Amino acid sequence: MQNPLPEKEVTCKCGHSFITRKEKSWCEKCCRGVFYHRKDRRFDVFQKYYTLTMILVILGFIIFTFVGFFGKPLFS
What we know:
Number of helices: 1
Oligomer: single chain
Number of domains: 2
Number of strands: 4
Radius of gyration: 21 Å
Largest sheet: 2 strands, antiparallel
Mean pLDDT: 87
Strand content: 15-25%
Helix content: 40-55%
Structural class: alpha+beta
Strand order of the largest sheet: 1-2
């Protein structure tokens, strides 16, 4: 089991402040993630953009394949 972090007051972007011992907590006012360490927030933003990019690449590949197999004979 991990050792609990010391209590720290964190402030959300909406201005709501609260005390937490967790690495990631949720703001009770706006439901955004609030992080204990700043570097964790940067990693979360990077991970969100990476996931969105991968989903768009996969959807683009599926559409490209669909048009290649079924669209080409229909338009020829």
